[in-house]
Protein backbone atom coordinates (compact mmCIF):
# COMPACT_ATOMS: atom_id res chain seq x y z
CA UNK A 1 0.00 0.00 0.00
CA UNK A 2 1.79 3.13 -1.19
CA UNK A 3 -0.86 5.64 -0.11
CA UNK A 4 -3.22 5.52 2.87
CA UNK A 5 -6.43 7.39 2.06
CA UNK A 6 -8.48 8.32 5.14
CA UNK A 7 -11.95 9.43 4.05
CA UNK A 8 -14.49 8.28 6.67
CA UNK A 9 -15.36 11.26 8.87
CA UNK A 10 -14.63 10.75 12.56
CA UNK A 11 -11.89 8.17 11.95
CA UNK A 12 -9.10 8.01 14.54
CA UNK A 13 -5.59 6.69 13.90
CA UNK A 14 -3.25 5.62 16.70
CA UNK A 15 0.10 3.83 16.87
CA UNK A 16 0.58 0.36 18.34
CA UNK A 17 4.13 -0.99 18.23
CA UNK A 18 5.15 -0.91 14.52
CA UNK A 19 1.62 -0.50 13.17
CA UNK A 20 -0.92 2.22 12.61
CA UNK A 21 -4.38 1.25 13.82
CA UNK A 22 -7.22 2.91 11.93
CA UNK A 23 -10.50 3.05 13.90
CA UNK A 24 -13.34 3.85 11.53
CA UNK A 25 -16.14 2.98 13.95
CA UNK A 26 -16.41 1.38 17.42
CA UNK A 27 -15.13 -2.18 17.12
CA UNK A 28 -14.01 -1.67 13.49
CA UNK A 29 -10.21 -1.54 13.20
CA UNK A 30 -7.66 -1.85 10.43
CA UNK A 31 -4.01 -2.50 11.33
CA UNK A 32 -1.33 -1.46 8.82
CA UNK A 33 2.45 -1.92 9.23
CA UNK A 34 4.10 1.51 9.17
CA UNK A 35 6.77 0.27 6.75
CA UNK A 36 4.09 -0.28 4.08
CA UNK A 37 2.95 3.35 4.03
CA UNK A 38 4.62 5.92 1.79
CA UNK A 39 2.17 8.80 2.31
CA UNK A 40 -1.13 9.59 4.03
CA UNK A 41 -3.95 11.68 2.55
CA UNK A 42 -6.48 12.91 5.12
CA UNK A 43 -9.94 14.04 3.97
CA UNK A 44 -11.78 16.27 6.44
CA UNK A 45 -12.40 15.35 10.07
CA UNK A 46 -9.78 12.67 10.80
CA UNK A 47 -7.84 12.46 14.08
CA UNK A 48 -4.16 11.45 14.33
CA UNK A 49 -2.61 10.87 17.74
CA UNK A 50 0.66 12.59 18.60
CA UNK A 51 2.39 9.18 18.45
CA UNK A 52 1.22 8.76 14.84
CA UNK A 53 2.41 12.27 13.96
CA UNK A 54 5.80 11.61 15.59
CA UNK A 55 6.16 8.33 13.68
CA UNK A 56 5.34 10.03 10.38
CA UNK A 57 7.95 12.70 11.05
CA UNK A 58 10.56 10.12 12.03
CA UNK A 59 9.87 7.80 9.09
CA UNK A 60 9.61 10.68 6.58
CA UNK A 61 6.00 9.86 5.70
CA UNK A 62 4.34 13.00 4.30
CA UNK A 63 0.83 13.65 5.60
CA UNK A 64 -1.41 15.82 3.39
CA UNK A 65 -4.48 17.46 4.88
CA UNK A 66 -7.41 17.94 2.49
CA UNK A 67 -10.99 19.09 2.83
CA UNK A 68 -13.65 16.37 2.71
CA UNK A 69 -14.06 17.08 -1.02
CA UNK A 70 -10.29 16.81 -1.62
CA UNK A 71 -9.03 20.41 -1.66
CA UNK A 72 -5.45 20.84 -0.40
CA UNK A 73 -5.10 22.50 3.03
CA UNK A 74 -1.51 21.80 4.02
CA UNK A 75 1.00 19.09 4.81
CA UNK A 76 3.11 17.63 7.58
CA UNK A 77 6.77 16.92 6.81
CA UNK A 78 10.05 16.90 8.71
CA UNK A 79 12.36 19.41 7.02
CA UNK A 80 15.83 18.10 6.24
CA UNK A 81 18.57 20.81 6.35
CA UNK A 82 19.83 19.51 2.99
CA UNK A 83 16.52 20.55 1.42
CA UNK A 84 17.40 24.20 1.95
CA UNK A 85 20.13 24.01 -0.73
CA UNK A 86 17.60 22.68 -3.24
CA UNK A 87 15.13 25.45 -2.41
CA UNK A 88 17.84 28.10 -2.90
CA UNK A 89 18.50 26.71 -6.40
CA UNK A 90 14.76 26.72 -7.09
CA UNK A 91 14.52 30.39 -6.11
CA UNK A 92 17.46 31.25 -8.37
CA UNK A 93 16.04 29.35 -11.36
CA UNK A 94 12.61 30.84 -10.72
CA UNK A 95 14.05 34.18 -11.81
CA UNK A 96 15.70 32.86 -14.99
CA UNK A 97 13.43 33.45 -17.99
CA UNK A 98 15.25 30.99 -20.27
CA UNK A 99 14.89 28.18 -17.74
CA UNK A 100 11.21 28.91 -17.17
CA UNK A 101 10.48 29.11 -20.90
CA UNK A 102 12.25 25.90 -21.90
CA UNK A 103 10.92 23.93 -18.93
CA UNK A 104 7.39 25.13 -19.69
CA UNK A 105 7.82 24.17 -23.36
CA UNK A 106 8.80 20.63 -22.33
CA UNK A 107 5.89 20.30 -19.90
CA UNK A 108 3.35 21.45 -22.50
CA UNK A 109 4.91 19.16 -25.12
CA UNK A 110 4.52 16.21 -22.75
CA UNK A 111 0.93 17.13 -21.97
CA UNK A 112 -0.02 17.49 -25.65
CA UNK A 113 1.74 14.25 -26.65
CA UNK A 114 -0.05 12.28 -23.94
CA UNK A 115 -3.40 13.91 -24.75
CA UNK A 116 -2.95 12.99 -28.40
CA UNK A 117 -1.92 9.44 -27.50
CA UNK A 118 -5.00 8.91 -25.31
CA UNK A 119 -7.31 10.06 -28.11
CA UNK A 120 -5.61 7.71 -30.57
CA UNK A 121 -5.71 4.78 -28.17
CA UNK A 122 -9.37 5.06 -27.21
CA UNK A 123 -10.45 5.92 -30.76
CA UNK A 124 -8.67 2.94 -32.32
CA UNK A 125 -11.88 0.93 -32.60
CA UNK A 126 -14.47 3.69 -32.61
CA UNK A 127 -12.87 5.82 -35.36
CA UNK A 128 -14.83 8.99 -34.51
CA UNK A 129 -14.07 11.66 -37.12
CA UNK A 130 -14.12 14.59 -34.66
CA UNK A 131 -11.59 12.80 -32.47
CA UNK A 132 -9.24 12.41 -35.43
CA UNK A 133 -9.68 16.11 -36.23
CA UNK A 134 -8.60 16.93 -32.67
CA UNK A 135 -5.57 14.67 -33.07
CA UNK A 136 -4.59 16.50 -36.24
CA UNK A 137 -4.99 19.85 -34.48
CA UNK A 138 -2.84 18.76 -31.53
CA UNK A 139 -0.19 17.48 -33.96
CA UNK A 140 -0.09 20.94 -35.58
CA UNK A 141 0.11 22.58 -32.15
CA UNK A 142 3.11 20.41 -31.24
CA UNK A 143 4.93 21.60 -34.35
CA UNK A 144 4.09 25.25 -33.67
CA UNK A 145 5.10 24.92 -30.03
CA UNK A 146 8.75 24.50 -30.97
CA UNK A 147 8.82 27.88 -32.75
CA UNK A 148 7.45 29.94 -29.85
CA UNK A 149 10.03 32.19 -28.19
CA UNK A 150 8.14 33.72 -25.25
CA UNK A 151 6.58 32.26 -22.11
CA UNK A 152 3.13 33.88 -22.32
CA UNK A 153 2.51 32.49 -25.82
CA UNK A 154 3.68 29.07 -24.65
CA UNK A 155 1.14 29.17 -21.84
CA UNK A 156 -1.53 29.92 -24.42
CA UNK A 157 -0.84 26.58 -26.09
CA UNK A 158 -1.93 24.78 -22.94
CA UNK A 159 -5.36 26.40 -23.30
CA UNK A 160 -5.48 25.77 -27.06
CA UNK A 161 -4.69 22.10 -26.48
CA UNK A 162 -7.41 21.76 -23.84
CA UNK A 163 -9.95 23.41 -26.16
CA UNK A 164 -9.19 20.78 -28.82
CA UNK A 165 -8.82 17.84 -26.46
CA UNK A 166 -11.79 17.87 -24.08
CA UNK A 167 -14.63 17.96 -26.67
CA UNK A 168 -12.94 15.04 -28.46
CA UNK A 169 -12.34 13.22 -25.17
CA UNK A 170 -16.04 13.53 -24.38
CA UNK A 171 -16.84 11.69 -27.63
CA UNK A 172 -15.12 8.61 -26.19
CA UNK A 173 -17.73 8.18 -23.44
CA UNK A 174 -19.90 5.20 -24.46
CA UNK A 175 -22.11 4.99 -21.37
CA UNK A 176 -25.22 6.93 -22.40
CA UNK A 177 -26.09 7.83 -18.80
CA UNK A 178 -23.19 10.29 -18.80
CA UNK A 179 -22.87 13.43 -20.90
CA UNK A 180 -19.88 15.76 -21.20
CA UNK A 181 -20.16 19.14 -22.92
CA UNK A 182 -17.17 21.07 -21.59
CA UNK A 183 -14.69 21.24 -18.72
CA UNK A 184 -16.22 22.95 -15.65
CA UNK A 185 -13.98 23.24 -12.62
CA UNK A 186 -15.10 25.36 -9.65
CA UNK A 187 -17.40 23.74 -8.77
CA UNK A 188 -17.98 20.78 -11.10
CA UNK A 189 -21.59 20.91 -12.26
CA UNK A 190 -22.03 17.39 -13.66
CA UNK A 191 -20.81 13.85 -12.83
CA UNK A 192 -18.07 13.68 -15.49
CA UNK A 193 -16.51 16.97 -14.37
CA UNK A 194 -16.81 15.81 -10.77
CA UNK A 195 -14.76 12.71 -11.57
CA UNK A 196 -12.15 14.70 -13.48
CA UNK A 197 -11.82 17.30 -10.73
CA UNK A 198 -11.56 14.72 -7.95
CA UNK A 199 -9.05 12.65 -9.93
CA UNK A 200 -6.88 15.68 -10.68
CA UNK A 201 -6.99 16.72 -7.02
CA UNK A 202 -5.79 13.31 -5.85
CA UNK A 203 -3.11 13.19 -8.55
CA UNK A 204 -1.94 16.67 -7.55
CA UNK A 205 -1.61 15.70 -3.90
CA UNK A 206 0.32 12.55 -4.79
CA UNK A 207 2.69 14.73 -6.85
CA UNK A 208 3.02 17.19 -3.93
CA UNK A 209 4.05 14.37 -1.58
CA UNK A 210 6.65 13.06 -4.05
CA UNK A 211 8.09 16.56 -4.61
CA UNK A 212 8.42 17.06 -0.85
CA UNK A 213 10.05 13.64 -0.45
CA UNK A 214 12.61 14.62 -3.11
CA UNK A 215 13.60 17.67 -1.05
CA UNK A 216 12.07 20.31 -3.33
CA UNK A 217 9.57 23.03 -2.57
CA UNK A 218 6.24 22.42 -4.33
CA UNK A 219 5.62 26.17 -4.60
CA UNK A 220 8.13 27.38 -7.22
CA UNK A 221 6.59 26.55 -10.59
CA UNK A 222 7.48 27.57 -14.14
CA UNK A 223 4.41 27.09 -16.30
CA UNK A 224 1.94 27.92 -13.52
CA UNK A 225 2.23 31.03 -11.39
CA UNK A 226 0.15 33.49 -9.40
CA UNK A 227 -0.01 35.75 -6.37
CA UNK A 228 -1.48 33.08 -4.09
CA UNK A 229 0.79 30.65 -2.28
CA UNK A 230 -0.15 27.50 -4.20
CA UNK A 231 1.75 24.36 -5.12
CA UNK A 232 2.65 25.62 -8.60
CA UNK A 233 5.50 23.14 -9.20
CA UNK A 234 3.09 20.27 -8.51
CA UNK A 235 0.64 21.83 -11.00
CA UNK A 236 3.50 21.85 -13.52
CA UNK A 237 4.74 18.31 -13.03
CA UNK A 238 1.28 16.70 -12.97
CA UNK A 239 0.40 18.05 -16.44
CA UNK A 240 1.96 15.24 -18.47
CA UNK A 241 0.19 12.66 -16.26
CA UNK A 242 -3.36 14.03 -16.44
CA UNK A 243 -4.31 12.09 -19.59
CA UNK A 244 -2.63 8.71 -18.96
CA UNK A 245 -3.67 8.50 -15.30
CA UNK A 246 -6.87 10.46 -14.63
CA UNK A 247 -8.54 10.95 -18.02
CA UNK A 248 -8.11 7.30 -19.04
CA UNK A 249 -9.36 6.15 -15.62
CA UNK A 250 -12.48 8.33 -15.82
CA UNK A 251 -13.32 6.83 -19.22
CA UNK A 252 -12.81 3.35 -17.76
CA UNK A 253 -14.99 3.76 -14.66
CA UNK A 254 -17.78 5.38 -16.70
CA UNK A 255 -17.75 3.11 -19.73
CA UNK A 256 -17.42 -0.07 -17.64
CA UNK A 257 -20.09 1.21 -15.21
CA UNK A 258 -17.80 0.91 -12.19
CA UNK A 259 -19.13 4.35 -11.21
CA UNK A 260 -22.85 4.84 -11.84
CA UNK A 261 -24.93 7.94 -12.46
CA UNK A 262 -26.57 7.71 -9.01
CA UNK A 263 -23.14 7.75 -7.30
CA UNK A 264 -23.22 11.57 -7.23
CA UNK A 265 -24.97 14.12 -5.06
CA UNK A 266 -25.23 17.93 -4.95
CA UNK A 267 -23.85 19.99 -2.09
CA UNK A 268 -25.61 22.93 -0.48
CA UNK A 269 -22.46 24.95 0.12
CA UNK A 270 -21.03 25.15 -3.42
CA UNK A 271 -23.87 24.20 -5.77
CA UNK A 272 -21.55 21.57 -7.20
CA UNK A 273 -21.91 17.86 -7.92
CA UNK A 274 -19.66 15.42 -6.06
CA UNK A 275 -19.19 11.69 -5.52
CA UNK A 276 -20.99 10.10 -2.59
CA UNK A 277 -18.81 8.79 0.24
CA UNK A 278 -19.07 5.15 -0.84
CA UNK A 279 -18.42 5.98 -4.51
CA UNK A 280 -15.43 8.09 -3.51
CA UNK A 281 -13.86 5.03 -1.89
CA UNK A 282 -14.52 3.02 -5.04
CA UNK A 283 -12.91 5.70 -7.20
CA UNK A 284 -9.89 6.00 -4.89
CA UNK A 285 -9.42 2.23 -5.08
CA UNK A 286 -9.49 2.39 -8.89
CA UNK A 287 -7.13 5.38 -8.92
CA UNK A 288 -4.66 3.57 -6.68
CA UNK A 289 -4.72 0.61 -9.08
CA UNK A 290 -4.11 3.03 -11.94
CA UNK A 291 -1.16 4.60 -10.11
CA UNK A 292 0.30 1.10 -9.76
CA UNK A 293 -0.17 0.18 -13.42
CA UNK A 294 3.17 -0.54 -15.07
CA UNK A 295 4.52 1.48 -17.98
CA UNK A 296 7.89 1.97 -19.64
CA UNK A 297 10.16 4.89 -18.75
CA UNK A 298 13.36 5.75 -20.63
CA UNK A 299 15.37 6.18 -17.41
CA UNK A 300 15.00 2.48 -16.51
CA UNK A 301 15.09 -0.74 -18.52
CA UNK A 302 12.41 -2.44 -16.43
CA UNK A 303 8.76 -1.40 -16.26
CA UNK A 304 7.74 1.05 -13.55
CA UNK A 305 4.42 2.02 -12.00
CA UNK A 306 2.88 5.36 -12.86
CA UNK A 307 3.70 6.55 -9.34
CA UNK A 308 7.34 5.61 -9.86
CA UNK A 309 7.24 7.37 -13.23
CA UNK A 310 6.07 10.56 -11.49
CA UNK A 311 8.96 10.21 -9.05
CA UNK A 312 11.42 9.73 -11.92
CA UNK A 313 10.11 12.89 -13.58
CA UNK A 314 10.59 14.86 -10.36
CA UNK A 315 14.18 13.62 -10.27
CA UNK A 316 14.59 14.69 -13.90
CA UNK A 317 13.37 18.13 -12.90
CA UNK A 318 15.76 18.19 -9.96
CA UNK A 319 18.66 17.33 -12.29
CA UNK A 320 17.64 20.15 -14.60
CA UNK A 321 17.83 22.52 -11.64
CA UNK A 322 21.16 21.29 -10.32
CA UNK A 323 23.05 20.37 -13.51
CA UNK A 324 21.55 22.67 -16.12
CA UNK A 325 20.33 19.81 -18.35
CA UNK A 326 17.06 20.24 -20.24
CA UNK A 327 13.94 18.77 -18.62
CA UNK A 328 12.48 15.95 -20.73
CA UNK A 329 8.78 15.16 -20.21
CA UNK A 330 7.20 11.74 -19.73
CA UNK A 331 5.43 10.42 -22.78
CA UNK A 332 3.28 7.29 -22.96
CA UNK A 333 3.99 5.86 -26.40
CA UNK A 334 1.16 3.31 -26.61
Percent helix, as a range, is: 40-55%
Give the helix/strand class: alpha/beta
CATH superfamily of the largest domain: CRISPR-associated endonuclease Cas1, C-terminal domain
- Taken together, the total number of domains comes to 2
Protein name: CRISPR-associated endonuclease Cas1
InterPro entries: Cas1, CRISPR-assoc_Cas1, CRISPR-assoc_Cas1_C, CRISPR-assoc_Cas1_N
GO molecular function: DNA binding; endonuclease activity; hydrolase activity; metal ion binding
EC number: 3.1.-.-
If you had to describe this structure to a student in words, what would you say it looks like?
The chain is an alpha/beta fold. It has 2 domains: 3-76, CRISPR-associated endonuclease Cas1, N-terminal domain (Ribosomal Protein L15, Chain: K, domain 2), CATH 3.100.10; 83-323, Four Helix Bundle (Hemerythrin (Met), subunit A), CATH 1.20.120.920. The chain is built from 10 helices and 12 strands. The radius of gyration is 20 Å and the shape is globular. Its cofactor is Mg(2+); Mn(2+). It is an enzyme of class 3 (hydrolase).
Brief account:
Its cofactor is Mg(2+); Mn(2+). The protein has 334 residues and is of the alpha/beta class.
Amino acid sequence: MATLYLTDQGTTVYKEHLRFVVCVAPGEKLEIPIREIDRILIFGNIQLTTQVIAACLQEQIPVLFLSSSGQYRGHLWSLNPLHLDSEIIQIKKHKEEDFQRETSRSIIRGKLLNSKQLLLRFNRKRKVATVMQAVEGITADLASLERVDNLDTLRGYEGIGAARYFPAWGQLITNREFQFAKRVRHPPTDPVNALLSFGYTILLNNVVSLIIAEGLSPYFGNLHYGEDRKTYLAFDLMEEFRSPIVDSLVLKVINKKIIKFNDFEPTRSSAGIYLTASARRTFLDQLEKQMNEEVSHPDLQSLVTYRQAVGLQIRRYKRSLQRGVAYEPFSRLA
